[in-house]
Amino acid sequence: MLPLPDFDLHRPQTLPEALRLRAALPKARILAGGTDLIPSMKQGLFTPQDVLHIAGLAELKGITVNADGIRVGALTSLTEMRRDARLATLVPGLVAACKSVATPTLQNMATLGGNLLLDTRCRFYNQSQFWREALGGANAKPATGCLKCDSAGICHIAPKGKGCYAAHSADTVPTLILLGAQAELASVRGTRRLAVEALYGEDGREAAPDRSPRLLIAGDEVLVAVHIPTPTGPTVHRKVRARAAIDYPMLLVAASAEGVVLSSLGPRPQRVTGIQGSMLDADIDAVAQAAFSQAFPLATHVWASTWRKKMVRVEVRRALAELATLNGDPR
Questions:
Q1: What does the DSSP assignment read for 215-226?
Q2: What is the dihedral of CA 257, 296, 318, 287, to 10 degrees?
Q3: Within 13 Å, how many C-alpha atoms sit on residue 307's CB side?
Q4: CA distance 56 to 166
Q5: What pLDDT, in 10s, does the model give residues 304-325?
Q6: Which of 172, 69, 28, 200 lies closest to 113, judged by CA?
Q7: Weakest mean pLDDT among 47-56, 81-90, 252-261, 320-329
Q8: Could you give the C-alpha distances from 265 to 107, 210, 214, 252, 322, in angstroms and in order?
Q9: How far apart are CA 202 and CA 249, in angstroms?
Q10: Tell me: the pLDDT tens digits for 244-271?
Q11: How many CB atoms lie within 10 A of CB 322?
Q12: Average of per-residue pLDDT values in the chain
């Protein structure tokens, strides 16, 4: 059994208290459901001195549906979302995404906010510290450690590159992007909203002065809620993984009348471009071919990237066929 490192645990009772602690402890890790953070800490991916446990903040929980759209608190569990009849009617693709995360047991603990802020991952990074040290670490010549864990290391996905290419794997995000969702972020400085699509940078690592970080939010901010405009049509979620439960995705596809978004191919989700005419013409093959041409899966998984690229065309076709059925088109 892998032990947790030593750390100081802070349990704020209100959102203002949490924001004050966040400002005072910018390097602290935020703990909500813990389904991603706790295993990562056991693997030695993070060794924070402070952990900010916010699971008790009532202000960050619950689902509200009104004339302005849908508001989902960041601490709302994926189970609560997938069981909500209103969401099943309004945003079926989002509900499907919640159902596809890991297993029902983990969905009981996992939160929407945690899914949005999920760490990027690859087959070299998501291993124990012992396994990663077997690669050589920073003292090897040349350095062979994982770039994301060791600034002197290399990216084993793209050894000749200068960035980290660990893949974005959050199930709910592609659908939220198509829905035009916004993240509500709070700090002691105030509250702001940021499009979910704008949350993610081009590098899989944490913030640093010389690069775009994986999350484009300030270090003192806390994700409070996700706001979704009133949907005007259905959404579809598709996921490719080795097993029907537990495994992280090798490919995510979201589709709606607004377009197609792919994920789990690189550090951030990817919107398929130049398909507006084909979408209006309901030309499924043309859209699928465009997605295939724009997709460049990296070797973040054991499964071949060439096969995953071919699955882009297959899954986009399937998503658009399902979307047509939901829209009343039997094709």
A1: B-S-TT-EEEEE
A2: 50
A3: 9
A4: 31
A5: 999 999 999 999 999 999 999 9
A6: 172
A7: 320-329
A8: 23, 24, 14, 8, 22
A9: 19
A10: 888 999 999 999 999 999 999 999 999 9
A11: 18
A12: 93
Q: Identity (one letter) of the amino acid at 157?
A: I
Residue type, 135: L
The 3-state DSSP class for residue 166 equals: coil
Q: Compute the chain's Rg from CA coordinates.
A: 20
d(CA 314, CA 211): 35
Q: Report yes or no: 163 and 203 within 8 Å, Cβ to Cβ.
A: yes
pTM, full prediction = 0.95
- Residue at token pair 């508001």: 71
CA separation, residue 128 to residues 124, 148, 167 (Å): 10, 14, 18
* Long-range contacts of 45-51, Cβ-Cβ distance < 8 Å, separation of 24 or more: 45/119, 45/125, 45/126, 45/149, 47/5, 47/7, 48/7, 49/7, 49/8, 50/7, 50/8, 50/9, 50/10, 50/25, 51/7, 51/8, 51/9, 51/10
DSSP code at position 197: G
